Amino acid sequence: xxxxxxxxxxxxxxxxxxxxxxxxxxxxxxxxxxxxxxxxxxxxxxxxxxxxxxxxxxxxxxxxxxxxxxxxxxxxxxxxxxxxxxxxxxxxxxxxxxxxxxxxxxxxxxxxxxxxxxxxxxxxxxxxxxxxxxxxxxxxxxxxxxxxxxxxxxxxxxxxxxxxxxxxxxxxxxxxxxxxxxxxxxxxxxxxxxxxxxxxxxxxxxxxxxxxxxxxxxxxxxxxxxxxxxxxxxxxxxxxx
Length: 241
Known about the structure:
By secondary structure, the protein is an alpha/beta fold. It has helices spanning 13-16, 39-55, 59-73, 76-84, 88-95, 107-114, 128-138, 161-171, 189-194, 230-235; strands at residues 23-26, 119-123, 146-148, 178-182, 197-201, 225-227. The chain has a six-stranded parallel sheet with strand order 3-2-1-4-5-6, with no helix packed on it. α9 (189-194) links the parallel β4 (178-182) and β5 (197-201).
């Protein structure tokens, strides 16, 4: 029996469901690296600190404001822009000023993504500069065709439908041959409605992610696949070279 071409998807039953995928779209934080590293926890802490300083409020009040912005605007950044006319560049520089030393190389993930057939993308609510720092720590050497960040999205974050449509249009992506990998269930609703396949990345050893009471869960019908090991999941899709 003839083998599949190099870079083609393997005969794994899960891989068969991805046979027509030509655009691989990845969220960044808590998706391309494990949540337990605490890298994004630092960003979260600095978001709360920024709120305290910018609005002259207490830590407790900042927590309430952030939750409110998250539910109504998608991100704290968007809430501050819409309701307070804040300078987004200052915010992004501040919240992404974190220690990335706890994040190490992940050669298995790098190799698995490098073997994927077609094009590869980052779609993040963070900045490109932040994404590039994270990708460098993981060990990526520019394997992505585009990093579509919050600035390119005109500061309109996922899960707003316009952001996904803008991303797809600018990159000429057919949703029917694309898949989205995310750590937040609600950020997969629009991709699924547009025709994309969806994969939820959860913390290791679990089948759920922490969400607010009003958010969709990992069991929602718009989630096609779930994995707590992104590198292992992707490795099943392509043979080793």
